[in-house]
Design goal:
Blueprint: H1 5-11, H2 31-44, E1 52-58, E2 64-70, E3 73-75, E4 78-84, H3 88-95, E5 98-105, E6 110-120, H4 123-132, H5 135-138, E7 146-151, E8 155-160, E9 168-175, E10 178-183
Antiparallel strand pairs: 1-2, 1-5, 3-4, 4-7, 5-6, 6-7, 6-8, 8-9, 9-10
């Protein structure tokens, strides 16, 4: 009997790994602090490339597009990533400067979603980022084509999977200069 693709996919194990303990009363008011804790915890646990993320943008017709990239920095200004202005990513951000980032740390059953408007960094910051790349990675980049962008988060969701499917969602939503946090069943994505 031939197995269908759907059956084969359904038979794959899910939510393998081990989720670190999480307590709602221990969560910081600032999502940046929680993100830094989760990414360093992932790195210390040996998660390969914990700074890799999927960036989603939309094209001129509103069709979503996604690609994997490396997080360059994260601070109170936003989550930074870079690339050529002339790329599809660059053209899409020029037309519609908003994006979402998704981090997935499978061994820990953790994911983080960040979304918001995108701002271009200064020419000096973009040049410094390009200069920090290897000579091979800089080869072929036209003068002034390299851009460092930042997703300025309006919403950040921290997701921790559970074998019993009672997943934990911690959602931070920007309210002026403050963050409002909800836990688990208070808001569903």
């Amino acid at each position: 009997m031939e197995i269908t693709t759907a059956a084969w996919l359904r038979a794959r194990p899910t939510l393998t790994g081990s989720a670190p303990t999480l307590h709602p009363d221990s969560l910081p008011d600032d999502p940046l602090a929680l993100f830094l804790n989760w990414i360093t915890t992932a790195a210390e646990a040996g998660v390969a490339e914990p700074h890799a993320a999927t960036l989603a943008t939309v094209d001129a017709d509103g069709v979503p597009d996604a690609r994997t990239l490396i997080l360059k920095d994260v601070d109170e200004r936003g989550w930074a990533f870079a690339g050529p202005r002339s790329s599809a990513k660059g053209r899409q951000l020029a037309a519609r400067p908003a994006a979402a980032l998704n981090f997935w740390w499978q061994p820990q059953r953790r994911a983080v979603r960040v979304r918001g408007p995108v701002q271009e960094a200064s020419a000096e910051e973009s040049a410094a980022d390009l200069q920090a790349r290897s000579a091979a990675a800089r080869a072929g980049v036209a003068e002034g084509d390299w851009v460092l962008w930042r997703v300025v988060p309006s919403r950040i969701e921290f997701w921790q999977g559970a074998e019993d499917r009672q997943h934990v969602r911690i959602v931070y939503v920007r309210d002026g200069s403050d963050w409002v946090r909800t836990w688990r069943g208070e808001e569903r994505a």
